[in-house]
Amino acid sequence: MRRHPSMVPDAVAPPPRHPRFPLLDGMRAIAVLSVLGVHSALTGGALSTSLPGRLLAHLNIGVTIFFLISGFLLYRPMIAHRLGGAPAPSVGDYAKRRVLRIYPAYWVLLTILIVVPGVTGEVGGNWWPMYALVHTLPVYHGARCSDLVFKCGLAQTWSLVVEATFYVALPLYALVVDCATRRLSSRRWLQVQLLLLTALSALSLVLQFALLDPAPTWVTGSVIGYLFWFSLGMGMAVCSVWTGVQKHPLSHRRPTAEMAWAAAFALYLALSLWLPANPFLFVRHEQLVAQLGYGVVAALLLMPSVFGSTAVGLPRRLLAHPIMAWLGLISYGIFLWHYAVVLKLGSPGAGGSFFVVLLGSLGISIPCAAASYYLIERPLLRLKYHRLRDYVRVPTATLRATHTQAPTQASPRRREEADS
């Protein structure tokens, strides 16, 4: 599937000659709205033992969805060539795209939160770990924004640090696995890929919940602590490449998407009823159940976006709605901006209820996110697949072509005049 550059926004465009999965835009919208919802409930006092309070308390599953999407979209282009797909992007191009996607909009918001009185994007003047996105890693040992949940407007960016460590580790993992599986048949390649991802997931869970008590920051603040979630997305990428080659996608039938979502909602309801209503009160075995359960729920929610026809079933129609697609397009900005807004609206002085915080944060975060996308993200993300000098050369090349063509266009007329 070859994309036309003008048809796909650069922010969500896949590497050249790789397929795009447009329904994942809608899944990004669901993920970011879930994160915004749980933070609104947290600051708006909506967490309770009632069923609505329990359902709201576990909307932090939105982070799980984001991790699975990253695992799928970033790993798939690295392995598609193994079964006849487009070549994998170079490490340099991959790194450039990740930096452009994450840092510029984040740096702008962080600077605003540091400068504007009454809000903060850093703690105790320790701004450099925040700018470098290492503030949850053991390379930094001072006060952490993520530890001061109700004081730092960027406390949610712990997940960005995890994403960044995943970005760094993924090319190395892909290279090692590619070298190890290069001589295998396609079926054996599939089996080994899934086996390795299963082993990594098990290792991560054992480290956190069996060997290390409590788990140190080099586990909980990096990809190591969330390998199960990323591996689920990567496993879906492996299956997506395999089913594309085999010409029999996992789902073309109408009920399949609905069944996947029904199972996801049923499991989410069961988790909400069994787990404590406050995520901060999870004990060790409850954290393990939450990590396993959230991963399965997120995988079920992603299935209609990844497998089967994009036009079949109610979930796919919902994800393809223009509003959902647009919210997914600006979802990174919503994720960045919403928490500082939630803290202000839900602060003791403001006294906002859950619905006030929720609606207010939506009403403020979405315009800020749109401005971030159209003014910062989109212009810079045009460089994902181009070099800056390409844009500088275009006017010069056009001007030179005009000057060189002018005499040749005039020459036939001059010859006619001479002949006459």
Explain how this protein is built:
The chain is mostly helical and 420 residues long. It has one domain. The chain has 16 helices and no strands. It has helices at residues 23-43, 51-57, 61-79, 91-115, 127-132, 158-181, 186-211, 217-220, 227-246, 254-274, 284-306, 314-319, 322-329, 331-345, 354-381, 388-419. The radius of gyration is 24 Å and the shape is globular. The termini are far apart. Residues 1-6, 249-254 and 402-420 have low confidence and may be disordered.
Task: Please supply descriptive tags for the structure shown above.
420 residues, mainly alpha, globular, disordered N terminus
Summarize the SSE layout with pairings.
Blueprint: H1 23-43, H2 51-57, H3 61-79, H4 91-115, H5 127-132, H6 158-181, H7 186-211, H8 217-220, H9 227-246, H10 254-274, H11 284-306, H12 314-319, H13 322-329, H14 331-345, H15 354-381, H16 388-419
Summarize the structure.
The protein has 16 helices and no strands. By secondary structure, it is mainly α. Helix 9 runs parallel beside helix 11.
